[in-house]
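Box S1 | Example of a co-folding query
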Amino acid sequence: MQLHIGGYIPTSFLDYPGNTAAVVFFAGCQFRCPFCHNPELVFPGAEIERIGTEHILADLKKRAPFLDGVCVTGGEPTLQPGLLPFLREIRSLGLKVKLDTNGARPDVLERILAEKLADYAAMDLKAPEETYSLACGRDGDATLLPLVRKSIALLLRGAVPFEFRTTLVPGLHRIEDAPLLGRMAQGAPLFVLQNFRPGNTLDPGFSSLSPFSMEFLEEFRTALLPFVGEVKIRA
Ligand code: SF4
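Box S1 (continued) | Returned holo structure for iron/sulfur cluster
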């Protein structure tokens, strides 16, 4: 099973809302979001904790009676050639799967949904279409948006419960972006807004930016609400 694992949390109460879950972080991502707070997971070969897949599966097997599921995150999980066999192994333990994705591999997402290998998906919507590639750190790359649009459409078919989510970043997002993101996500049951967190960011120029105020997040939420079922703020 070809997997590049960058980290493992045996038990988390936060990463799969409403569930007690283990978290598997995959190393490697095709985006370079300047505000990314997991830069050590982004670059190829970034297996910061060299944990073997077999070790993780053995641990999950041992603790399956005490877990609801596994959150599969990154980095970008859909880049892993061995992801589907890994998800099948998790399934065989009777555990649920939450998939976090940036939506740039709709071919993989489609196979996961078709095989019912995820119970929940959380997909990033980085920014409105006009600034999408900029927010991904791939400014001017016209190949991204068609892929992201395809993943949005796949999730909107409703095969599994899902959320779209955006990290709101000063300098990258404005209040005018709320209806633009709303149109991209139109009809989604849930949209989650996350506030930017300063600190260890991929672009050091973002590390000391001040996050948005709660007032801004509330205003953004209100402007987004007409397009989707629910908007939550995870500050
Ligand atoms: S924030 Fe961007 S660069 Fe970081 S892991 Fe997610 S998609 Fe990749």
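Helices lie at 53-63, 83-92, 106-114, 132-135, 144-156, 177-184, 214-224. The first strand starts at residue 5 and ends at 12.
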